[in-house]
Amino acid sequence: MVHRCHRLIQDGTIINQNELAHYGQISTTRMTQIMWMDNLAPDIQEEILFLPNTVKGRDPIKEADIRPIAKTLDWKKQRKMWRELKAANPVDQETKSVD
Questions:
Q1: What domain of life does the UniProt record list for this protein's source (predicted)?
Q2: pTM for this one?
Q3: Which of 13, 39, 64, 78 has its CA 20 to 30 A from that of 88?
């Protein structure tokens, strides 16, 4: 989704993030938070995409937990922060995945 949002702005279909937020019916602040996710190292983005679905309880890793990582532009630092976050919030494969 984030890549598509960037393309809409780059292509001139949407003027800027404010307009994108308006069409998405969310605040500009929230749109900015979502767009930060594109700053994540590609391998972290991929890991997030393939996290197992939560079938009961709350997600062990929340988007708000990832924001500080996404705001860090150094991918080496991001990877360290991501490893620390995953270690502090393990994902239980048995109770979380849906097959």
A1: Bacteria
A2: 0.73
A3: 39
Asked whether residue 71 falls in the same domain as residue 30, the answer is no
77 half-sphere exposure, CB direction, 13 A CA radius: 8
* Residue of 68, 58, 55 lying closest to 99 (CA atoms): 55
CA-to-CA distance for 32 and 27, rounded, in angstroms?
A: 9
The three-class DSSP label of residue 79 is helix
Tokens in use for 79?
């990877």
Query: By the 8 A CB rule, do 44 and 59 touch?
Result: no
Query: What is the DSSP secondary structure assignment for residue 25, as one 8-state letter?
Result: T
